[in-house]
């Protein structure tokens, strides 16, 4: 099998590349390196079945050429992270909507199968106990840039569904809930690597808002395994699936746990949303997935708990600091 991964230089894309290469498949990644990093896939660059193309999903000619050569397409390329979305909403909308349309049109042209990664942000302010794929979206004003990411990914999902219904393009949609693990950076608002880096450096651990907002965190390799299983299953076509962990934790509790695991002297400091992002910023108080649909079809089930994930991320950051000659000072 020949695989194309858009956004393959990103955190999730690099782990997906590893998993697909382990299946003896050929993997080509397309990434413009705006948020992806070559160091994420540096260990794969000598692999004979791994190929990197530095370019943009808005380049129709390039996307056409790469899709033509592929058997399956994993579409991960997107503007990601709350901070980036708030600071650059126009670029985010263009990348997510026009980019996805470009990829879908090429997939249609060459009769390929595609998996599109969406997000738990789809549900907006819906705080139901366990969000099902059919649940309502509850969003704030369209004039708040906070909701532009959710809106753009909803358009991606609609495009994928319409291409399936009207043009018979085999599409699979997955909604990822806070996927975390090694290689994720603290840029663009990613909370776990940001907290770990601050704790290891002995800096204040900055919690945005009250810290009572609750999240669930999924290990990246569990997410990748679910994505591959769904891509391979014929009954997943035309459907959308939540992939996440159902174990909740408040952001305050997360900060406390990281400080404990790093044996840091850091203090938790709360920063109002209007200082962290923008005036009038709105957040989701709770986000918990119902993953029964993916479990029933492909047996998806998280295998790695939060504390083990945190230990892996802490070990990675510690090694990075040591190799740079700057030992962590927070311990």
At a glance:
40% of the residues lie in helices and 17% in strands. It has 331 residues and is of the alpha/beta class. The N and C termini lie far apart (47 Å).
Textual characterization of the structure:
There is one protein chain. By secondary structure, the protein is α/β, with parallel strands linked by helices. It has a domain at 2-178 and 219-243: 3-Layer(aba) Sandwich (Rossmann fold), CATH 3.40.50.720. It is built from eleven helices and 13 strands. It has helices at 11-21, 60-69, 82-87, 89-109, 148-167, 191-200, 220-232, 251-262, 273-276, 292-298, 306-323; strands spanning 2-6, 26-31, 50-54, 72-75, 113-119, 171-176, 179-180, 205-208, 214-216, 218-219, 239-243, 248-250, 268-271. Strand 1 (2-6), helix 1 and strand 2 form a beta-alpha-beta unit. Helix 1 packs across helix 7. The longest helix has 21 residues, at 89-109. 45% of the residues are buried.
């Amino acid at each position: 099998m020949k695989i194309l991964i858009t956004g393959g230089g990103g955190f999730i894309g690099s782990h997906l590349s590893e998993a697909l290469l382990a299946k003896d498949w050929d993997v080509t990644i397309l990434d413009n390196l705006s948020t992806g990093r070559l160091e994420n896939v540096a260990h794969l660059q000598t692999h004979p079945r791994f190929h990197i193309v530095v370019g943009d999903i808005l380049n129709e000619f390039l996307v056409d050429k790469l899709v033509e050569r592929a058997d399956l397409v994993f579409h991960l390329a997107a503007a990601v992270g709350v901070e980036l979305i708030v600071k650059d909403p126009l670029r985010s909308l263009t990348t997510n909507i026009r980019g996805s349309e470009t990829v879908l049109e090429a997939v249609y042209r060459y009769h390929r199968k595609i998996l599109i990664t969406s997000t738990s942000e789809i549900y907006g302010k819906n705080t139901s106990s366990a969000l099902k794929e059919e649940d309502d979206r509850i969003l704030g004003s369209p004039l708040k840039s906070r909701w532009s990411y959710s809106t753009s990914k909803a358009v991606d999902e609609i495009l994928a569904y319409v291409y399936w219904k009207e043009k018979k393009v085999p599409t699979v949609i997955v909604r990822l809930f806070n996927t975390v693990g090694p290689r994720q950076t603290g840029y663009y608002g990613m909370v776990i690597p940001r907290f770990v880096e601050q704790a290891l450096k002995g800096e204040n651990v900055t919690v945005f808002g009250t810290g009572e907002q609750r999240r669930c965190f999924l290990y990246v390799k569990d997410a990748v395994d679910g994505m591959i299983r769904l891509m391979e299953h014929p009954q997943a076509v035309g459907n959308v699936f939540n992939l996440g962990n159902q174990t909740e934790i408040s952001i305050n509790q997360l900060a406390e746990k990281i400080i404990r695991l790093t044996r840091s002297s850091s203090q938790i400091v709360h920063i109002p949303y209007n200082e962290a992002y923008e005036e009038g910023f709105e957040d989701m108080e709770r986000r918990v997935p119902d993953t029964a649909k993916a479990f029933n079809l492909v047996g998806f089930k998280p295998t790695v708990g939060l504390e083990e994930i945190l230990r892996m991320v802490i070990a990675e950051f510690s090694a990075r600091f040591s190799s740079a000659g700057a030992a962590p000072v927070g311990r």
